[in-house]
Amino acid sequence: MTRDGRPHPRGRYAFGVDIGGSGIKGAPVNLRTGELAAERLRIPTPQPATPDAVASVVAQVVASFGLRKGIPIGVTFPAIVRHGVTESAANVDASWIGTDIEDLLHRATGRRVLAVNDGDAAGYAEVEYGAARDVPGLVVVLTLGTGIGSALVNDGRLVPNSELGHLEVDGFDAESRASDAARDRDGLDYATWATERLQRYFSVVEALFSPDLFVVGGGVSKRHAEFLPLLKLNAPVVPAQLRNNAGIVGAARLAAEAP
Fold it and tell me: SS3 letters for the chain?
């Protein structure tokens, strides 16, 4: 067991798959370092992204690496995933709602699969290997992109399916105004976006959860110097470190820790 009571990861390697609206990516992960152990494979997400079509691509990604039997496999999915069942669908076909994704992918790959929300996987990776490593207390990871993904990790333990991008702020779904897509849609520069949109959103999240650290991810985090310093919060705010590999790494780690 780890110092906070979680099981140690099984073995040195695990495999992560990140299912997104445009691409499905996978790679083996070195669990000691959080680095990819081979170049990741990306295959475009089938359209329509129905369960059977996506499962076929996931099986193709997994099979292409010649994994030994028994290696843990974790898969991210852009939805609420509760006890292996998808309860929402974002950027994929609505037929996913109510699907037992773990059973579906087990049948497609012939392997045991752990499925998790994509924001949870990315956030967990940042806590285990990235910007929040060794940070005690509550870490809130927010991914600013087409929407807003989120993860809550308290003393190393993930609180799943937080979906903080859908908080109602000033009468709006938060991500409809504070996501990077909203910034682009409304023609906002980074300073205006930070002071008029992100400040309000982050302040609400901070008032609700009083985190010890915010980590900000998503592609826009590459330009963090243009907007993160403008936020006035009690908790420190830092950019994510793992970028596009975070989902793969987090899914692999969670799968390796699963009992």
Answer: CCCCCCCCCCCCEEEEEEECCCEEEEEEEECCCCEECCCCEEEECCCCCCHHHHHHHHHHHHHCCCCCCCCCEEEEECCCEECCEECCCCCCCHHHCCCEHHHHHHHHHCCCEEEEEHHHHHHHHHHHHCCCCCCCCEEEEEEECCCEEEEEEECCEEECCCCHHHCEECCEECHHHHCHHHHHHCCCCHHHHHHHHHHHHHHHHHHHHCCCEEEEECHHHHHHHHCHHHCCCCCCEEECCCHHHHHHHHHHHHHHHCC
User: Domain spanning 134-240 has what CATH number?
Assistant: 3.30.420.40
pLDDT of the chain, 259 residues: tens digit per residue: 444 555 556 679 999 999 998 999 999 999 999 999 999 999 999 999 999 999 999 999 999 999 999 999 999 999 999 999 999 987 778 999 999 999 999 999 999 999 999 999 999 999 999 999 999 999 999 999 999 999 999 999 999 999 999 999 999 999 999 999 999 999 999 999 999 999 999 999 999 999 999 999 999 999 999 999 999 999 999 999 999 999 999 999 999 999 8
Q: Is this model's pTM higher than 0.90 or not?
A: yes
* CATH of region 13-120+246-257: 3.30.420.40
Q: Domain map of the chain by residue range? A: 13-120+246-257, 134-240
